[in-house]
Amino acid sequence: MEEYTFLRTLADSWGLLAMFLFxxxxxxxxxxxxxxxxxxxxKTIPFRHEDAPAPDDEEDETRQRKEARR
Length: 70
Hints:
By secondary structure, the chain is mostly helical. Helix content is 70%, strand content 0%.
């Protein structure tokens, strides 16, 4: 029973601390300035083909991607 109590105490204190530090790391990583381009691209996904339907071939798709990024 002593081993269980030790492991429970360890999980309650250090486990909670580890999860909190992981959470803080994820929050910091999301808001890094270097992630701005990825966020800009992902937030415009719903509007990518707003004016016209999705292209059928790769050449049109490449051209529309370049136009959408301007």
